[in-house]
Fold these 2 entries.
Entry 1:
Amino acid sequence: MVNRIAVVMAMAKPSLARAEHHPMAPDLNLDRTISRGSSSSSARIVFVVNPKGANGRTGEEWKKLLPHLRSRLGRDCNIYESFTSGPSHAMDITREAIREEADAVVAVGGDGTLHEVVNGFFWAGKPVCACERDRNSTTALGLIPLGTGSDFARTFGWRNDPHEAVERIARGLKTRIDVGVINGDIGEPHYFINVADIHLSAKAGYYASRYKRFGNFCYIIGALRGFMGHTNKDLKIKVNGGVWEVFPQVTAICIGNAKFFGGGMKITPNADPRDGNLEVVILQNFKWYDFILKLHRLYNGTHLSVKNVTSMRVQSIEVEEVKNSGSIYVQSDGEHLGFLPRKFFILPSAIEMFC
């Protein structure tokens, strides 16, 4: 069983080869075992690495981290690495690792890589599981933040320090965290661990994703592009399966499982990914100059007392346009998901995570 994860990954992608303590190939496109524990019962941990993250900095920082990773975890763990080659690949790696009874899957990169790994914990609307495993034993989630943005880590007060992240894994302390779910009219549900958002902020995020090469400056570029041609819209909202209520002139809606998005903006300041709720923040009738005047309040999380800002705690929320235009953007954890209508709800204590 010790070698099954690496073997299955290699079989699934014929172009990938497994190596033992060999230098990484120039294109970083390989799966390999990087350390073995001292016994066959050692924990099996799969590191999912986005080598192109942060303009290639993630791959470079990962190479620098490997000696420390081996020395800190190698005695007690069988450690595998797998490099992503494109969109959605992290989801496939995660699902295969869980099915092959990995004890943990660790996302190495930014919020985008973490988002894909979290989605890999689910398939066809249900959690992925290893059929031969004891139901009381599950695969844990880990994070080593090495990407452009690490907003989810900020909720826990974690620094953008990979050595500190390795220590969290080495300690082995875990907590159950909630996961948000997004349903549309058709297709599979989508999962998010951080923040989902609607309208202006989602549009800005859509454009920001095109300028990741500029680091956190991409969020400013995205905001400028998002404001171009923006108009506030009347939206219908249903909370916890209740009655529909019209919210006029909505600028943006943010639905937080955690607190931060957009490179450090504390948009849902009361969100806690362990309390079984989503925090919903609705901005209405904001003009471009409102964001300039109130930007500091959005970043420090004091905007809930600002005029035209509404906050609520929910287990589910449905959002539709009053007059359907099919043009209201929806995103989660920085990934564009299409347009309204959508339903959002919480899965309490869905994943165990190193803390």
Entry 2:
Amino acid sequence: MSASDLSELTAARYGKTKVRVFRIVRQGTWHHIVEYNVEALLEGEISTSYTKADNSVVVATDSIKNITYYLAKISPHILNPEKFALHLATFLVSKYAHITKAFVTVEQLRWSRIHVAGEESPEGHPHSFYRDGDDKRVVRVEVDATFGKDKLVGKVTAGLSDLLVLKSTGSSFTKFHRDEYTTLVEVDDRIFSTSIDLSYTFSDISISAPADEKKLEFIVPLQQGEPGYKGSVWDEDVPSRARTATLETFAVDESASVQATLYKMAQRIIAENALVQSVTYALPNKHYVPVDMRYLGVDNLTPAKAEVFVPIAAPSGLITATISRK
């Protein structure tokens, strides 16, 4: 029996990753900037490139990189990662007859305007910016042309990653299951810190096929104020609402556990965004352990007197959950 009789190709996807894009959009002296890390992967009738060494079905990954840069130059949607990702994915499945699905991930790095005393605009300086955090906005898009190039379906998941938060009180962990393996002491006041990864998934959307010859057109069907806009993938305020809901809930919740706080954060995002169908959080514990100073006759272990802590990187608890709309 030959090797070909023992195996078959059951899944294949390829493309370009870590395409770094920085774009300036100039409106006179007022400039907007975005910095993205982009990944674009393709599926379709590409199996023979694996099984028959047939490169005729391969859109070179270098071409995918060049397309990403070109669309970053000409797309009117470049400042919004959800719309830009959908534009790029729509172009890829529309341009190439044998490509049926495109998967685009856009990771946006944070830049904010510098504020200068006496400046004219309350929004900040017109062309000077600073990196104001390590967290990133993340958008994952799939555009599916399986049912025809004129019947495109978009699937969008967005969110953020690496949002580091900490509260020095307002968190407890008591009455958990105990058995012969339990050494953890119950505590009614503790530091709560985590690095938040959040993703929320919208209802599937119908995408209009590009009508122009080069397949570069991308139509945004809903604008602000129109029915169905608020809370949809087209609503550019969803990311800020989700971020605010996460931070505010974390801050004010008298947390009985990471699990309980997570659930409240997700509930608020679903309540405030009508077309978000599910919310997923991954919250790794960032442990801060009080230093035992009893050998010096100093109480640094009682929660109300614990003031000096050792940050512990590993091991770490990890709490995850998905909360879905009923």
